[in-house]
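Posted in: Structural Biology > Protein-Ligand Complexes

Title: Requesting predicted complex, BES in pocket

I'd be grateful if someone could produce the 3D structure tokens for the following input. Sequence and ligand are given below.
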Amino acid sequence: MARLDPHSYFDSDQPRTRHLDLDLTVDFARQCIAGRATLVLAEPASGPLDLDTKGLTIVSATSDAGGVAFELGEEEPILGSRLRLTLPAGTRSVVLACEAGPGAVGLQWLAPEQTAGRRHPFMFSQFQPIHARTMIPCQDSPMVRATYQAAVTVPEPLTAVMSAGPRGLRPGAGAGQRTMLFEMPQPIPSYLIALAVGDLVSRDLSPRARVWAEPGTVEAAAWEFAGVEEMIATAERLFGPYEWDRYDMLVLPPSFPYGGMENPRMTFLTPTVLAGDRSLVDVVAHELAHSWTGNLVTNATMDHFWLNEGFTTWAERRILEALRGEAAAAVSWAIGRTALKESIARFGSDSPMTVLRTHLEGVDPDDVYSSVPYEKGSLFVALLERTVGRPKFDKIIREYIKRFHFTSITTEELMTFLEQELPGAAARAGADEWLHQPGLPRNAPVFRSASLEALTALAESWAQGARPAPAQVADWSPNELLVYLQHLPRPLDGASCRWLDETLGLTGRGNYEILVEWLTIAVTSNHEPVFGRVKEVLTRVGRMKYLRPLFKALGTSVRTRSLARDIYAEAAPGWHQLSRRVVESVMEQYPD
Ligand code: BES
Ligand code: ZN
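-- Reply #1 --
Done. Output follows.
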């Protein structure tokens, strides 16, 4: 027996799933997804087959070779329950009838009031890192890749989208229902299976890209993402051909707990990226970049998560640099650096959660999600790039993607590859320290620009009376304004808060990065005029990246803590389970 993934019951000595055939019915009244999952095996097999499940009801198990005995193990808090099947000789496929109930962590069910249109319910999945098992029994480890097809039955007025190509409708669904068909012909890990159902319409952005959203949001979304084809073309020049046919996007309701999720052929996005000025489309660049780093070359387990996010964050900034120039990319690197410092401070600079190659046995990956794999990871990739020079490194990256595409790899496999292609380079960069030691190594690359230095200096001399002139502010890009805010001292006095808000027009901003940074400063400063806006944001938006700093700031005083508790009571029922958990962990640190 060989269990190689600390977060899965997948046993590498057992047969692997090669294809999944899903037939699912989405029942909004009961908040259930019920149906059948057929697992087609890579080769005929017999004996035990261990699958991951969590909170699932298993109704029956059969196979093309006869009856299948099944046994559902005890529920383990992180992994869930092992489903052990005993396959008769010559089994090529097994059919599992199953049902996922309202508690499934990987699914969020929204009432009509939680959507933009307020008329229809909504449901979406979020399976990374280990939640596919809450919808279907599967080998829920990224070491296993399978193609899939699906038939999804939904209430008549609603539309389903998946991380797959659409294959039309299947006739014969019951009254008031329709069955939509999907096919994903390329092998993907289970965490990239995705489903959303709601009142959805789409707008074409290019022959291979479109955006889906609720009717009231779709025009704004089409405007915001109009540049996506240029991004795809830029990414192809950098990383090689786009291998997934279409690149579509779905704008979710505001409770979506992440900024974006790279579901293949259908990136999921928070509506908070609709800033109205295209200033947050770097989230799209990031999710698009995963089409190469993450979805083609995938982390073998969550212990190698930095391979997904570190390479993708580096790739995102290379795309931005190509589109907007080196200075704009330097600003992004600076914002990343601030996030990294915050994460390292949160864990402690000697914490094992600040190494790149982690050892997460017994640790819930959702509990240790942070900027470390993104920012420390991308800095390490940038350091390798600097060590060998850009022309050579760009060739190596394309080679890396070609060599490992449609496979799932470990950090050690990456290092073996690098040693073959660029002998000695990893050692020169100090790779061992980067991968295995906590904190940020001293040889981390720094991305400088004159305007960045001026911005941070200006912010840091606030107490000495330095203030930006309004004409100067008008010249700043949204990201430059964000850098400025991030470097301001805090708390500030009431007059300073008023001056900032009046001069920079912060409380009314549509760019959530700027808005949340400002509200964090203002709350930390006990600046009452923003409290109403804080409540408005938190009762609407469930993106964890914004909940954490705001609730942390709300811990500052007795008064703000009581505000936090009011807001929590009102907002928590509308948040995703994962968002609720993050906020609860922050509030547990409150002194009273
Ligand atoms: N794959 C991640 C989101 C994720 C990671 C979900 C781990 C669950 C577990 C996605 O690509 C991501 O990184 N999103 C960022 C976007 C940002 C870095 C531009 C986010 O949600 O903030
Ligand atoms: Zn990512």
